[in-house]
Every structure is written in structure tokens, then in C-alpha cells.
Amino acid sequence: MASAGKKEASPGQSLAAAQVDFAEIQQIIDGLVEQIALIDCDGTILTINESWRRQVERQAHTGLHISRDYVGFLAGLIKDGDQGAVPIFRAFQDVSAGKRQTFRCVYHGQGAFAGYDFIVMIMALVVHRTRCILVSVHDVTELVTLKRQKRRIGGQVLRAQEAERRHIARELHDSTSQLLVALQLDLALLSQDAGPEVDAVIAKCSAAVQVVQQEIRTFSFLAHPPSLVANNLASVLHDLVRGFAVRTGVEIDIDVSDCGEVSSSIEAALYRLTQEALTNIHRHSGATQATVRLLGKKSCVHLMIQDNGIGFEALDSQVGPMLGVGVLGMRERVRELGGRLSIHRAIKGTVLTVSFPRQKRMIFAPQIGRLKL
């Protein structure tokens, strides 16, 4: 890259006008894998590194070469309907005006950039006493593709799991339950001609059959609860909790507020987490009371489920088997949706809390090299 003759820059004077020697800067940024451009506060591209140059040449974007107007380039994208460039354009203006120091976003390409995904970082720098802007662009197209594939596969696994649960629930209801009814009838016939000692044994067997029938009804309901497709989240949660309470005898206090607009994937996650938590309460906690709360805030939706059961020691990654495969899978699903899940022991019992952002966020954490000038 060409460098101009040296001229001392006064504070506030543009680097382009001062014609500062960029040799030292160029040596630093060429060693970075990110696409780097140094731009003056007016939007003129002063210098770029090799990664930026290769991307520009690959896509034939002449508007991103040295001496071109970066702000004008962004404005052109917006004019062509690329709404993803709007926050970048505004952030550059804010940074150049000193209203903010840094900006970071994920840009999903449109138009000529279609098929590409980038992390864009903008930060203010002072080079030779002159304020300028560093723009860093990191190509995360492959990472985004892998994350989308992972979410798609995760969704397929969850749907397969739900289908298998429905199948098991139907088999238990249509086959096993009928066999238990027949067994109860046989025990009733046997008791007609039995003596006192045999009557006591038959009574115990009949009580055991009733318990098994109750367990099957509860499991069938939890495995195949009300459909989220046909109803809204609030009504389905109310139906799920009421059905669970009737079948298990656990007293449940439910408070579901209008959580507003959330994505279908987040609704499904909240629903399945409630389903899994109730299943664990029934199987493991020995609880007599529980609380289900769903609360919508301005930027987040919060779910809290608490019981008064036996509880357990504080959960961490080393005691994951206590959670069961279902919750471990949902923990990963919550993370993929940008949420947070916590399961911990209360004074008595267990508390599950989960929070989701209203707008799902893609989460990346690439390491951006430090630039020392």
C-alpha cells in the first residue's frame, strides 16, 4: 500500500490531509486475520490490511479501496434496501462524532454480500494525535452456518423426542392400562371366594394396581400434554399445570402474565422446560406444593418453577446426571437461544429459573487482536 510523505498532524486535523506515514500501522494490521481498515472521521479509507484487500478483490467492491468514501458506501447499501447496514452507518457517525467509543454487531449480508455473515467492530483510535476510526470485519459465515445446522438438528431431535413420547403415552393408555383394568377385575373375582388372609393380599395387590394406573395416567399426560400448536402459551401452561395437579395431587400455584410477543422457538422452549420440570417434580422430588411463574418484561421473558421437595446439592456441570437427559438437552437449547438457565436448591426444595431475550441473539466470541499504535 502506498504511503505518503510525513507531515505532522495537529489534533483534529484529518489523517488524509496530514499525510501521515502509515508504514508502522500497516505492519501491525497486516498481521491480523480480521479485515481491517483505518478510516478518517470524514469517512475516507486511509489504509487497509491484506485480509480486507483480498475480500474486496474477491467481491469486486471498488467502493472499499483506499481513498474511497466508506460512509458513502454504507449509504449506498442502505439506499439499495440493505437494512443490516443501517446500525453500522449510524454507529460510524456516532464514533466519528465522539458520541461513543466502540460498536459491535453481526451483519448478515444482503445483495452483493448475500451468503456472507460478518462480525463488524468499529472503534475510535488516536493515531499521531489525530482521531480516526478502525473498522474490523471478521468473516463468520462458516460459524453461522454450523450454528444454524446445529439448531436445526436440535429441533429435529426435540420433535423426534416429542413424537416418541406421544407414541409411548398412547401405548400405555391403550394397552398397559387395559391390562391393569383386567387384572383388577380378576382380583375382584378372586376375592369373592377367598379367606381373610387371602383378602388382605388381594387388597394390597389392588392398591398396587391403582397406584400403577395413577402413575401411567400421570406419565401419559406429561408425555403428551396439551398442544402448543393449537393454543397460545399461557393457556397451554395453565392446562398443563392443572392436569398435572389433578393427576399427582401436588398443589400448584400458577401465575402466567401476558408475556407479549416472543418467537415460536422460545415459546416451545418455555413449554418443554415446564413439562420437563413437572416430570422431575413428580418422579424425584416428593413435593406436595409447587409454584409456576411466567413473567414478561420489556426485553426478557422469565420462567420460575419451585417445589418444596427434598431438593439436592447445588447443581453444576459435575452433577449433570441428576438433571436427566431432557433438561441437559434443554440447557443447551436455552444457551443457543441466547437465554440463561439456573437450577439450584432453595431452603426447601428446588428452584428452576430461565430467562430468554425477546429477540433471539446470535452469540459469537471471536478473538480480535489488539492494535497498539
Summarize the SSE layout with pairings.
Layout: H1 15-18, H2 23-29, E1 35-40, E2 45-48, H3 50-59, H4 70-79, H5 86-96, E3 102-108, E4 117-127, E5 130-139, H6 141-192, H7 196-223, H8 233-248, E6 251-256, H9 264-285, E7 289-296, E8 300-307, H10 324-336, E9 340-345, E10 350-357
Parallel strand pairs: 6-7
Antiparallel strand pairs: 1-2, 1-5, 3-4, 4-5, 7-8, 8-10, 9-10
Helix pairs in contact: 4-5, 6-7, 7-8, 8-9, 9-10
Explain what you see.
46% of the residues lie in helices and 20% in strands. The chain is elongated. The protein has 373 residues and is α+β, with helices and mostly antiparallel strands. It folds into three domains: 15-139, Beta-Lactamase (2-Layer Sandwich); 142-224; 230-364, 2-Layer Sandwich (Heat Shock Protein 90), CATH 3.30.565.10. The protein has a five-stranded antiparallel sheet with strand order 2-1-5-4-3, sandwiched between helices. A five-stranded mixed sheet has the order 6-7-8-10-9, with helices on one face. Helix 4 runs antiparallel to helix 5 (86-96), helix 7 (196-223) packs antiparallel against helix 8 and helix 9 runs antiparallel to helix 10. It has helices at 15-18, 23-29, 50-59, 70-79, 86-96, 141-192, 196-223, 233-248, 264-285, 324-336, and strands spanning 35-40, 45-48, 102-108, 117-127, 130-139, 251-256, 289-296, 300-307, 340-345, 350-357.
